[in-house]
Specification:
Distance between the termini: 52 Å
Order of helices and strands: HHHH
Strand content: under 5%
Structural class: mainly alpha
Helix content: over 70%
Number of strands: 0
Number of helices: 4
Radius of gyration: 44 Å
Largest sheet: none
């Protein structure tokens, strides 16, 4: 059995009206009955259109509300994503800062030991009466701690960002 259109009743009515119009002669009663039938069909179609329009309007309102909610949710997600990225960047910077600080402290301690064991005796032999030269050397080492830490921190951040970009490109 062939699938019928949901508008089959209306299609049948239209076909009957077309067949009626193809006839050559009409009685007044036949014209009145055909006109009455068409008016009733038209009235029923208008009622159906009104119902469909109301349903469509309700669905459109729901769709609009849903779209607004989705837009709001997308904005919130974008804000949260930005906050998350900022937090990740801050954590990465803190982690790298600790590593850089540790590396610089190891270097400072190494320089201090090298200074005390190897360089201090040479300075004491070269300037036996002047202890300011040894203190000046230690002051220079102390003053280089912060710039050294900043340099190590920047270098490690560049490396971490480069790694993140490579991982991001690989994920795509």
């Amino acid at each position: 059995m062939a699938k019928q259109s949901i508008y089959q009743r209306e299609v049948d009515s239209l076909e009957q009206s077309k067949a009626f119009l193809k006839r050559n002669e009409y009685s007044k009663l036949e014209l009145q009955l055909e006109f009455k039938k068409n008016v009733e069909n038209y009235e029923e179609l208008i009622d159906q259109v009104k119902i469909i329009t109301r349903i469509s309007d309700r669905l459109q309102k729901k769709l609009n509300k849903t779209n607004e909610a989705l837009e709001s949710t997308n904005e919130q997600l974008a804000e949260l994503n930005d906050q998350l990225n900022e937090t990740i960047d801050q954590l990465t910077e803190a982690k790298i800062g600790r590593k850089a600080g540790t590396i610089v402290m190891i270097m400072v301690i190494s320089l201090f030991i090298i200074s005390e064991v190897f360089i201090e005796p040479i300075i004491d032999d070269a300037f036996p009466d002047n202890t300011l030269v040894g203190l000046g050397l230690k002051l220079v080492v102390a003053l280089l701690i912060k710039p050294g830490e900043d340099f190590a921190n920047k270098y490690m951040l560049r490396q971490a960002r480069k790694k993140q970009i490579e991982e991001s490109n690989a994920a795509k």
